[in-house]
Amino acid sequence: MLLDAGFTLTFYDGARIAADAAQAGVAVDAVAVERTQKALRTEIREHQGVPLRTHDDGGRSWLRGVFRRILELAGTPGGADALDRAAEAVFRAHMASNVWRRIGDGVREALGRLRDAGLVLAVVSNSEGTIEAMLEEVGLRPFFGAVVDSTVVGVAKPDPRIFHMALDRLRVAPAEAIMVGDSPTGDITGARSAGIPAALLDPFDLYPWVDAPRFDDVAAFTTSLLSSGRAL
Q: N or C: which end of the chain has fewer CB within 10 A?
């Protein structure tokens, strides 16, 4: 089984973002940061026929904009200069140590259930070269036989090669695998182009047009998969 990382296994950490912004002299409420998720994801969602490409430049432009918008949505006090300064501080800190490090509800337990059921797991992520270290730091790395980070391997989703890299490391054939993630293009179209079935995590019902099994989160996907006793 292949899984995305951000917005699938882990989510941006309000406490980390608040601490990073504070280094730039800007106060932001950590709880308010985490409450921005639905609004942010609604704003940055893909639209049918318009793929969302986040890592054409390694994610730098996209991430700077995302961090600034998170701070705005969280009601961060100060003018545009303060928001710019704080967003840049969060970005720099993220590039050193990934801030998408808050483990999703039920994720750890779900990964344990999948592993106990005999599945081999890998992460396939468009990221900035920091995913494997982050997974180590939060204690999720032992669940995975491979971690494939687009910056490290030089190929980003939806390119089918990044999925094949993960399967090669697991020694699993495409038809025997499934990809789970939150991106219609990156995770669903990309996986299918590699010959891999895929399931979409869509907790806010943003993608009713996507023809794929849809679930709220990894825990719900895991329960469905293990209770069915068959591939989706």
A: C
Q: How many folded domains does the chain comprise?
A: 2
pLDDT of 159 over the 90 cut: yes
Side chain identity, residue 91: F
Residue 155 belongs to what domain range?
102-228
Question: 114 and 219 share a domain?
Answer: yes
**pLDDT at 232 > cutoff 60:** no
| Backbone φ and ψ of 147, nearest 5° | -130, 120
Give me the amino acid identity at 44.
I
pLDDT at 231 over 70: no
Q: Are 85 and 68 in contact (CB under 8 A)?
A: no
Residue-wise pLDDT tens digits, 164-211:
999 999 999 999 999 999 999 999 999 999 999 999 999 999 999 999
Q: Cα separation of 194 and 17, whole Å? A: 35
CA distance 106 to 129: 25
- Positive or negative, the Cα torsion across 87, 93, 97, 102? negative
> How far, in Å, are 14, 102, 157 from residue 58 at the CA level?
23, 22, 12
State phi, psi for 97 to the nearest 5 degrees: -155, 105
Structure tokens at 147: 């971690």
Q: Give CA–CA dist 148/163, Å, rounded.
A: 8
Q: Are residues 69 and 140 in the same domain?
A: no
Q: How many helices (H) does the chain have, and how many strands (E)?
A: 11, 8
Per the document, the length of the chain is 232
CA distance 33 to 15: 8
DSSP class of residue 142 equals: G
